[in-house]
Design goal:
Number of strands: 11
Helix content: 40-55%
Number of helices: 10
Largest sheet: 9 strands, mixed
Low-confidence stretches: 320-324
Number of domains: 2
Radius of gyration: 20 Å
CATH architecture of the largest domain: Alpha-Beta Complex
Structural class: alpha/beta
CATH topology of the largest domain: Spore Coat Polysaccharide Biosynthesis Protein SpsA, Chain A
Distance between the termini: 25 Å
Order of helices and strands: EHEHEHEEHEEEEEEHHHHHH
CATH superfamily of the largest domain: Spore Coat Polysaccharide Biosynthesis Protein SpsA, Chain A
Mean pLDDT: 93
Shape: globular
Strand content: 15-25%
């Protein structure tokens, strides 16, 4: 196995601050780098093209459908696929290269987990349960798909997965205003997924079927069976206190305080508030939950594209072997 057999997929929308750095960290390690752009109006496409990346264009629905579009575009290339965000880099702290990681993978291994590190306000966030964060980002071409969700989506493969010594670092250079705007949109998407658990307007995902990150499976289980059983609003406060004090988030300093407060309490509270707003709208206007979601968030949770992708996911799940 060599770099000629590893193909990277990067999703972009106005990523001129990051795209050069991201692609540069992969050069020499990947045979192809495919940028799937959803309508950038800055220099993202120009920069990526100048660095030798293949540019594809696809209208954005959500991360999952966009990633699967990229997976399908690379389906005939063989080898391994790599998922990396535009604001991430393959970190020099990695104790092995992409090439050595895939070379040592035995035949029954379909996916490799990488460590993901988050930097916020100039500081690496290590505590509060943030690290270690193991994510399935490298998998054999043809064996993996992204689960269809509006938020918190993961790659699932047919066979087994194992840890690598690769490190991805998320070092976003945008402003805090950009960060809060992004998480406001994330909260709407997560509210849709949470409401789907009750109203089942789309086929439900099953991360426990097939190969995926064991850590992601455990976190999904705890979220569904423990966190979501607590009262809305209260659970966000409980989670923040657990994360900041019991999981020692306070050791992340002042940047960590803002990160844990905003990502662990503000964001989680916003998800709960949006769920309440949607339910109130549905009751007040005697309308369906999906119409209420669209009215209050602007997202159509049962668009034809989303229904088609979710139905295909269920069909694919049924053909997967039992997880090892």
């Amino acid at each position: 196995m060599s770099a000629a057999h590893i193909h990277a997929i990067i999703l972009t929308l106005n990523e001129e601050l990051h795209i050069h750095r991201c692609i540069e960290s992969l050069q020499g390690a990947c045979a192809t780098i495919t940028v799937v752009d959803s309508g950038s109006t800055d220099r993202t496409v120009e920069i990526a093209k100048a660095m030798g990346a293949e540019i594809l264009h696809n209208k954005w629905l959500n991360y999952a459908t966009q990633m699967n579009f990229g997976i399908d575009a690379c389906a005939d290339r063989g080898g391994w696929l790599l998922r990396i965000d535009a604001d991430e880099i393959l970190d020099a702290d990695s104790r092995e290269t992409l090439e050595t990681a895939v070379e040592r993978a035995s035949n029954e291994i379909d996916g490799l987990l990488v460590q993901r590190r988050i930097h916020f306000l100039g500081r690496r966030i290590k505590y509060g349960g943030i690290e270690p964060s193991w994510q399935l980002r490298l998998w054999r071409n043809g064996s993996g798909r992204c689960e269809i969700r509006w938020m918190d989506e993961h790659i699932r493969v047919e066979g087994r997965v194992e840890k690598s010594a690769l490190v991805f670092s998320d070092i976003n250079l945008n402003s805090l205003t950009w960060w809060t705007d992004k998480h406001n949109s994330y909260a709407s998407r997560e509210a849709i997924d949470a409401l789907n658990k009750t109203f089942k307007f789309l086929p439900d995902d099953r991360l426990d079927q097939g190969g995926a990150s064991p850590q992601a499976k455990i976190r999904r289980l705890l979220k569904n069976s423990v966190y979501m059983k607590l009262p809305g609003g209260v659970r966000a406060m409980v989670y923040f206190l657990y994360r900041y004090f019991l999981r020692l988030g306070l050791l992340d300093g002042r940047p960590g305080f803002y990160f844990h407060l905003m990502q662990g309490l503000w964001y989680r509270t916003l998800v709960d508030a949006k769920m309440m707003e949607i339910l109130q709208h549905a009751a007040k206007h005697d309308t369906s939950i999906t119409d209420a979601i669209e009215a209050r968030t602007g997202f159509n949770p049962v668009s034809e594209k989303m229904r088609s992708a979710a139905s295909k996911q269920v069909t694919d799940q049924q053909s997967l072997p039992n997880p090892q």
